[in-house]
Design brief:
- The complex is a heterodimer of chains A (326) and B (117).
- Chain A has 326 residues and is of the alpha/beta class.
- Chain A contains seven helices and 15 strands.
- Chain A has a seven-stranded mixed β-sheet, with no helix packed on it. A five-stranded mixed β-sheet of chain A has the order 7-6-5-14-15, with helices on one face.
- In chain A, α2 runs parallel beside α3.
- In chain A, 51% of the residues are buried.
- Chain B has two domains: 32 residues; 82 residues, Sandwich (Immunoglobulin-like).
- Helices cover 26% and strands 35% of the residues of chain B.
- The longest helix of chain B is centred in the first third of the chain and has 30 residues.
- Classes of the chains: A alpha/beta (326), B alpha/beta (117).
- Chains A and B meet through loops of A and β7 of B.
Amino acid sequence: MSGRTTKPTQDELLHDHNHDGVDRRGFLKCMAWAGTGAFCVIRGGVLKSYALSRLPEMDPKEMAGELSFAQISDSHMGFNKAANPDVAATLKAAVDKINGLAVPPEFLLHTGDISHLSKPEEFDTVDQILKSAKPQDVFYVPGEHDVLNDDGKQFLERYGKGSKGAGWYSFDKKGVHFVGLVNVLNLKAGGLGTLGHDQLEWLEDDVKHLKHSTPIVVFAHIPLWSVYPEWGWGTEDSAQALSYLKKFGSVTVLNGHIHQTMQKIEGNVTFHTAASTAFPQPQPGKADSPGPMKVPAEQLKSVLGITDVNYVRGKQALGVVDSTLE
Amino acid sequence: MKRSASVTALIAVAVLGIAALCVWSTSLAAAVPQTMEVKIDNFSFGPTDLTVSAGTTVTWTNRDDIPHTVVSTDEPKAFKSKVLDTDEKFSFTFTKPGTYAYFCSIHPKMTGKVIVQ
């Protein structure tokens, strides 16, 4: 193993991931619940997660890289129930947290559920709050709450400039290829998230000509792995999408939707879900339903958060850092 | 004779009146709106399967903190609600017998059925 030799503690998740990052027998699974918060770094194929409370002990050099960005998710602007009566304030807290990072991220990814009810004023409020973020570039994918009533028309008008189909797109930053996917439209009764034929075809074509050494970051709202299908936490045709990414040495998949952080490594792919900036949801199967979880007000910020991702050139791996809003 | 004719007329009027009353009350019975409730709670429809007679109006009420929809799975869709925020309602009157499957288009794992007899 490489990286810092830090003695594992109960709240630290440490996995010996093969250095080539590809040859895997079975998969490694690690879950870091938002309640504790986690700081994750992947270096030389080794994934390390630290409890957020230890972030101040971290060497800032470990957080530095040639490319860093922060992920925010599930702002649910407009939500005002007991689980969080002030989602604007917690989004602002997330922005403050991002602005306070030692290494300012170059841009933000928002992995959907920007709004709670797809109302124009909800989107406006989020846009307004994000204006105060140091990174001015924000890349969005829609959540199901952003495409209510109009099959995503408004979302496309607001955020879909230059995108394809229902809003999917890709871009490159410092050698990393980013792909934003839409899996919240045309949902079928009894089913999960769906990418659909057109989008899959586009994805296959989009990555076809890339070098195998290109680090890939895929982001979409609903997890692209089966977190808990009983609650709809998965995407029906994600296996097809991931099959197009098999040839790449490093693939990171970032999702939102489940309002808690969770990670899994499977072969060359690291899956990661981000916490919500609005309200937490229960662990899979630990409640009757995935509805908003009410926690005491003083604990709320410990279960909300942001994700900061660093890319170190040459390592072909991404360090993923979860921060709670405390 | 004269007297009995008027009695006959009276009886006729009475019979007609009763008949009219019967028709009126029958139509009244048919017009009495039947209503049924479905509660949306904890990401599920309750009852999941509901059997009603034709002409029944079913009202769904969202009691979750999260918005839901009530959307027919048939094509073309027999009914489709707007997004229901907390405590909002959607009603639909089922006039024709049949089985009407529906789901929440935001949380498609939520499914239900209305059986109209």
